[in-house]
Amino acid sequence: MILCSFPPAQNRPRRAAILDALARVVDADICILGAEVAAFEAEMAAHNGSAHCIGVNSGTDALVLALQALGVRPGDEVITVSHTALATVAAVTLTGAVPVLVEVDPLTRTICPKSAEAAVTAKTKAMVAVHLYGQPCAMDALLDLAKRKGIALVEDCAQAQGATYAGRRVGSMGDAGCFSFYPTKNLGAIGDGGAVTTNDSGVAERVRQLRQYGWDESRVSQRVGHNSRLDEMQAAILRLKLPDLDADNARRAAVSARYNAALAGLPGLTLPPVVAGTEAAHHLYVIETERRDALKAHLADRGVLAGIHYALPAHRNPGYATLVRLPPGGLPVTEALVGRILTLPIYPELSEAEIKVVVDGVRSFFGGTAA
């Protein structure tokens, strides 16, 4: 079976190097927030073009801590999208704020700046821009909106590490960038992990305090905090993989280009956008068709396990339905999108033979010949 993602394909060739990295941790004197975390934070900040990087327990915690460090409090409103991994909305609720959900752009599938502006109220404290599937949001418009309205802009970069907008890395433009190192991500750990990037030293200091009970350097709590620290072992693994991120993303881009060339022009099939001025991270390759479920079954019969990211928008999850706020007219673009989307396998180690199986499966469904 060809899967949408397969982290062991990245870890197994690096097994010896990973074990060597873990041995450094075993032999070290400090087990928590030691040399590996400090080195990874410096290396990731440099790679991302950010002044600061703070390692935390997960991408969800990265969002929670970033929002709290930017002053989001219970009862505030935070604008974001419903078409995202549920973690985005979950993080907002964990701060006690109200997620105000807005539309996505039908082309890029990322937050629509006009819809976001229409949702701003006197209670709006922040906006979370999700670089979904690895495609950067319309950052110029969002930065302008945040500045005009006096609200914080947080970038959810969980699916987009290494992507660029107008030559700048995602996570280096807003007030804070939030990253996940879940194993399937472009930079994946072997377990959970996350990070917050920022160019604001005050935000960085508050996140450092929040990740460890609110402690200052004297271990005196200056604010109510959490226990959310990036593990030394995961940091050691991430340090090993970070130098390969750009090459891995280039391979993802090559797979995406192969799909684009082979699937272009098939009737009833919409391919992911190629947006001028951006360089996507190609975390997921998401197509659209009204015959999504039939295509998914057709591919499964041919050994391709396609995915759906995401079958339910956040506001349709029962656990969150009463916690979010929607526009008066609802979210028709989002509602239509979730019934059409299908994710094809994409990861750096995907072989040419596997790509051909995927391509031929899609083409045969739409009546095309093998590529």
UniProtKB/TrEMBL annotation:
Statement: the UniProt record of this protein carries the keyword Disulfide bond: no
Gene3D superfamilies, per the entry: Aspartate Aminotransferase, domain 1, Type I PLP-dependent aspartate aminotransferase-like (Major domain)
A matching Pfam family: DegT_DnrJ_EryC1
Cited CDD domains: AHBA_syn
Residues at the catalytic site: K185 (proton acceptor)
The keyword Transmembrane is annotated on this UniProt entry: no
Keywords: Pyridoxal phosphate
Family recorded in the similarity comment: Belongs to the DegT/DnrJ/EryC1 family.
Record's protein name: Erythromycin biosynthesis sensory transduction protein eryC1
